[in-house]
């Protein structure tokens, strides 16, 4: 019998982290059941719930609401990217300018994550006019 993974209350956060963090199969450096390579060491804070998740699939599996995106123009200085290696929380601007490594501890970030940015950041300049 399949189980319903949607919650009807806020998910419990992982006590290993100072920041509120949830996900599926999260390890000590924020790798998850969906992304678990050596370089998958970031978690992203979602504006809809103010909770960090290792990826969009973790949010979709655990949260009881639809995800929302950050605004590419207005939210670049939001502290929304958690380095799982050193626990530093970066702004989007710091993360995007970091060249795939934590500016604080030097941990390598997965460069493939940038192909998923559209799931986390909404670029109003690329949306169709209404």
From TrEMBL:
The keyword Nucleus does not apply. One of its GO terms (molecular function) is zinc ion binding. The keyword Cell inner membrane does not apply. Residues 25-107 form the CHY-type domain. Pfam families: zf-CHY (PF05495). One of its GO terms (biological process) is protein import into mitochondrial intermembrane space. Keywords: Metal-binding, Zinc, Zinc-finger. This is CHY-type domain-containing protein. It comes from Longimonas halophila.
């Amino acid at each position: 019998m399949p189980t319903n993974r949607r919650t009807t209350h806020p998910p419990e956060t992982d006590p290993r982290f100072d920041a509120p963090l949830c996900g599926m199969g999260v390890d000590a450096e924020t790798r998850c059941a969906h992304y678990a390579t050596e370089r998958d060491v970031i978690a992203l804070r979602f504006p809809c719930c103010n909770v960090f998740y290792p990826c969009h699939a973790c949010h979709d599996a655990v949260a009881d609401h639809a995800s929302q995106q950050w605004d590419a123009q207005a939210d670049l200085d939001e502290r929304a990217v958690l380095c799982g290696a050193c626990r530093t929380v970066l702004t989007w601007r710091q993360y995007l300018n970091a060249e795939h490594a934590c500016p604080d501890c030097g941990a390598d970030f997965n460069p493939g994550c940038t192909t998923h940015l559209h799931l986390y950041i909404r670029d109003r300049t690329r949306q169709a006019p209404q």
